[in-house]
Structure formats: C-alpha cells, structure tokens
Amino acid sequence: MAVAVQEELNVYESAEARFETAAEMLGLEQGLYRYMKYPEREITVYIPVSLDSGQIAVFTGYRVLHSTVRGPGKGGIRFAPNVSLDEVRALAAWMTWKCAVVNVPFGGAKGGVICNPASLSKSELERVTRRYTASLSDWLGPERDIPAPDIGTNDQIMAWVMDTYSMHVRQATTAVVTGKPLDLGGSQGRKEATGRGLMLCCDRAIARLGIKCDGCRVIIQGFGNVGSEAARLMHEAGYKIIGAADIHGGLYNENGLDIPKLYDWVYTQRKPLPEFPGGGEKLSAQEVLFRPCDILVPAATENQITSQNAHRVDCKILCEGANGPTTSHADPIIEKKGIFVIPDILGNAGGVTVSYLEWVQDRQGFFWREREVNEHLQDVMEHAFDEVLRYAQTHRVNNRIAAYIVAIDRVARALKLRGFYA
Ligand code: NAD
User: Fold this and answer.
1) What residues flank ligand 1, with Cβ below 6 Å?
2) Which residue numbers are catalytic?
3) Diameter of the chain by CA atoms?
4) What is the 82 CA–ligand 1 centroid distance (Å)?
5) Does residue 1 surpass a pLDDT of 60?
6) How many CA atoms lie within 13 A of 355 on its CB side?
7) In testing the pocket of ligand 1, which one of 95, 113, 151 has its CB within 8 Å of the most ligand atoms?
8) Ligand 1 center to residue 172 CA distance, Å?
C-alpha cells in the first residue's frame, strides 16, 4: 500500500488531525495541548488460553486509558482479527472527546483483543475474556476504568468481565462494566441506545434542513447492534430505509426495505443480509454508501469514506454510527459537497450516555423504567446536538471540528481546575 494511503487509513492519524485542527481553532495553550495529546497509559497483555482441542494459543490484548481528567476511563472492548494498538489508541481518544461532548463524567479508554470471535467456541471466548480481564483487574474498576461492548463483544461477554473482576476483588461489582444483561445490573434501553441516539440526531438535523421524516430516505451500512437498532427505530418512526448492508454485502430498494422482516431474517433465522428474499438489488457492502439518499448512516467500521470515494457520496446528511467511518482526508470533500455531518463523537454517543445511566443505576442500586432512561437520553442528545451547532456557528467551523472544540474546551476547563499534580 502506498505510504499516503496507509497514512490516511491509520485511524490514529485521523483522530490526531481533527484534534490538532480543533486545538488550533480554540487557541489551546501549549501545555494543555501536550497533556491532552498523549494517553495516560497503554497496556499490552498476552493471553494464554487453552483451546477446546487441548492446544494452547496466546492472544494479544490492549487497554488504552486516554484520559481520566473528567472521571474514570470509559470505553468498549473490541474482539476482531485486525485490532491494533494504533486503532485502540484512536478509539480511546475518541471516547474522551465523546464523553465530553455529551457531558457525562467519564474520561476515555478502549480495549481490544486480536482474535476472530466467529472462529472461537463459546467456552474459548469465555476463557479469552476471563484471562484478559484478570490480566487487567488492577486497572479496571467502577472508579478507574469501565469497559463496555464494541465490535465482536456483547452482553454475555460483559457478564463474564463483571464476574471475573468480582472474583478478584471479592465482591459483586456490577458497575465495573456496562452493556450487561438486564438480569445482571444492565439498563433498560441500553441495547437500542446508540441507534436511538443516531435517530434523535437525525430528527434534529432534518428539522433544521426542512426535511420531513415521513418518507425521508435512509441508507445504513452495518446491521449489528448499532445499525440494526437504528434501522428498526427509524423505520418505526416513519423514515424509509432504502439500503442496508452487513459484512456479507448490501441491499438497495428504493421502495423501502421491510426492516422488521429483515431483522428477523438476520437475527432469528441467522441468514446473510443480502440473501433476504425479495429484498431488492444486491450490491457490495461498500457500494451501498454511494446510492442517492437523504441520510447516510455508516454504522459498520472505520475508513469507509475516504479521499478516493468521498466524491461519490450522495446524501444531504451524513450521520456517523461507526467510530471513524470517514477519514480526515475525506472531510474537505464532504464539506465542499455541502453535506450536513453529524460526526461520530456526537452521533453515536447515545451508547455511552446510557452506559453512564447504567453505571449510575448500578451504583445507586435502583433501576429506572425504559421510558425514564429514554427521556434522559433524549435530553442529553438534543442538548449536545444544539451545543455542537452553536459552537459551529460561533467558531465558523464545520460540525465535526465544532464537536471537537466543545470536547477539548470541557476537558481543558476540568484540567485547569484540577491543576497539575507534581
Ligand atoms: P457489531 O459487531 O454488532 O456490528 C457490526 C456490523 O457491521 C455487522 O453487521 C457486520 O456484519 C458489519 N460489518 C463489519 N464490517 C463491515 C464492512 N466492511 N462492510 C459492511 N458491513 C460490515 O458492532 P456494533 O456494536 O454495531 O458497532 C459498529 C460500529 O459502531 C463500530 O465502529 C463501533 O465502534 C461503533 N459504536 C458502537 C457502539 C455500541 O453501543 N455498540 C457505540 C458507539 C459506537
């Protein structure tokens, strides 16, 4: 791969580039800039696990704590074959900015294990999770660093993290991790939270642009936790989902996809999304991004919209569900097209917002109804959306840089109040 392309696809470089621009626009003092630029801690663990075959495999895992300035570290654990330290580092920094954008009292962290969860049995997955958690148990904790699910991990894995940590500290500690099952201190509404947050942002954006919800054409790439829940909620609300894709490929249908049936096909019948009978035109998972629509929601993985293909994006609103779906090199192309961007650190922040509510409920030992959780979420998302747009206007920057400015400003203020220890 040419060096320039490699650089563009390095998500850490993408995260850095936006941080640098926003810090400069904000006139951030040099000392604060240096403090925020680097993570507080990076841990690499080698995880020996006995496989069902009796062989021992050693997996590599990471946990990066980017910042605890505004509160304990918060961020998901990713299980995927292409996890790298640079990726985890970028995702950890994004968590710091995201938590600050929605103003929840957390810093940023992220973890990952290089493995292919689809090729591991359930008991192998459990052993990987437990050994990874045990290796990190001194650094995790409800007041230190609180993991959550991300690509390749789910509520069962979070239950194993909670149990392993609890065995080490010798007390049941539900608040050490969020995204848990409801029977184990999970929160109502967490499963749908990221998708709901995306929809709340889209509702706000279409109101500004004068687009009606009924029949508003939406394409969603990724049909996992984020994409499928966004599709379900938006379909229910009257949006018309005309395209969807998962790792197996995409489907496009200008008359709209039957989302409840598609969900059943993928999640109950466990079939590949593009094989959905009568679904529509089959295309590749990437091609779905370039069909005309009102709202495009990349909710799969990083680096989907790049300097090579951004000119083909044909939407009015780009609402980022995934972390880092657009490279920093693609930003100016998207901006020139006049596309209204809801950047990842705002758009997908519904997940961490309800994770925060889960942590609050675990610590108070009193749980809310779904309606109450959703009301809090709506309040937080709408406020954050309006704040980002206000900063965009006052600083004359695009929405993405405005979101970074909101975040960096909040972290800087907390840092100044705390002062520097030693
Ligand atoms: P997931 O593992 O549940 O789902 C990922 C989906 O993307 C699957 O449908 C998969 O088939 C599809 N996919 C993977 N690679 C693809 C490709 N190259 N092209 C098309 N589809 C592809 O993961 P998730 O939790 O839904 O997370 C998706 C994204 O959202 C990630 O970037 C994650 O970091 C981000 N995110 C997740 C949450 C959360 O609450 N789960 C919160 C904030 C951000």
Assistant:
1) 149-152, 194, 221-227, 245-247, 285, 299-301, 321-323, 348, 351
2) 110
3) 65
4) 14
5) no
6) 32
7) 151
8) 30
- Give the confidence band of 205 by pLDDT, cuts at 50, 70, 90: very high
Element (H, E) at 23: helix 11-26
Q: Are 92 and 108 in contact (CB under 8 A)?
A: yes
pLDDT in tens, 387-401: 999 999 999 999 999
Cβ-count burial of 24 within 10 angstroms (0-12 exposed, 13-18 middle, 19+ buried)?
A: exposed
* Strand bridging mode 56-67 / 108-114: antiparallel
Single-letter code of the amino acid located at 376? H
CA-angle at 41, arms to 145 and 127, nearest 5°? 55
The structure's pTM equals: 0.96
- Letter string b/e over residues 339-351, b meaning 16 or more CB atoms within 10 A of that residue's CB: bbbbbbbbbbbbb
Task: Note the residue count of the chain.
Answer: 422
Name the residue with tokens 């706000």: 204
Q: Where in 259-386 does DSSP place strands (E)? A: 281-283, 295-298, 317-319, 340-342
